[in-house]
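Input record, target 12 of the design panel.
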């Protein structure tokens, strides 16, 4: 009876394939498992420890995360390596080919932002916010701007620069920035995407802005959301 149960669980955990030569179908074979794309998302700004991934993906179990990392590693999308002393921790990071998947996230993000059922109040990781800024910046609004901006989210810091109509962001120290937003990812998103007044968020105690406040107001205006899609009969 126990052997039968183990065999049944192994079959249930086996990866399914579409057996379709279409490259889109093969892409789903590679990253179509639940949580796979979000694991890739969390690695898009650099290596992460297993514990970091679990913290930023609160709905995933350790077992499922292990399975997804093993599957992505076997597919050549993720690699595992050990940091040199004194850290000596094992981390996971994307391969060069893995990093090339960012346009997929950008296209999906722009498309899904139009969904009338999107719930922006759900958990939102720091990496997710940073990638959304790289996705949603309006080149026309950003043209001619040169803004060095920093973000302090928990123990992590990110540095970005608006230049030539785009924004480059990386996990880095805040040594040379014009302003810094400090708070949770959802609070910063409220300022950028929900259009909430910076002073109101500061009074609420969920956001702190250090630096040029005029520049801060200008920065949060560079990321307009697209109009919601109309659902026939809705």
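The sequence produced for target 12 reads:
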């Amino acid at each position: 009876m126990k052997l039968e149960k183990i065999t049944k669980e192994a079959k249930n955990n086996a990866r399914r394939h579409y057996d379709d030569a279409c490259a889109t179908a093969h892409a789903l074979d590679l990253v179509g498992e639940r949580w796979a794309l979000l694991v890739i998302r969390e690695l898009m700004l650099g290596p992460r420890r297993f514990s970091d991934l679990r913290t930023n993906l609160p709905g995933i179990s350790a077992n499922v995360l292990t399975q997804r990392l093993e599957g992505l590693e076997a597919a050549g999308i993720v690699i595992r390596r050990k940091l040199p002393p004194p850290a000596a921790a094992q981390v996971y990071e994307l391969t060069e080919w893995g990093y090339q998947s960012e346009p997929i996230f950008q296209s999906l993000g722009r498309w899904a932002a139009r969904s009338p059922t999107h719930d922006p109040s759900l958990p939102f990781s720091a990496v997710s916010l940073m990638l959304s800024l790289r996705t949603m910046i309006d080149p026309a609004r950003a043209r001619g701007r040169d803004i060095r901006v920093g973000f302090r989210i928990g123990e992590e810091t990110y540095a970005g620069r608006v230049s030539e109509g785009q924004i480059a962001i990386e996990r880095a120290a805040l040594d040379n920035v014009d302003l810094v937003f400090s708070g949770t990812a959802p609070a910063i998103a409220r300022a950028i995407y929900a259009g909430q007044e910076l002073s109101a968020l500061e009074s609420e105690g969920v956001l702190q802005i250090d630096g040029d406040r005029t520049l801060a107001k200008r920065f949060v205006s560079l990321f307009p959301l697209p109009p919601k899609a109309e659902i026939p009969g809705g």
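The radius of gyration is 20 Å.
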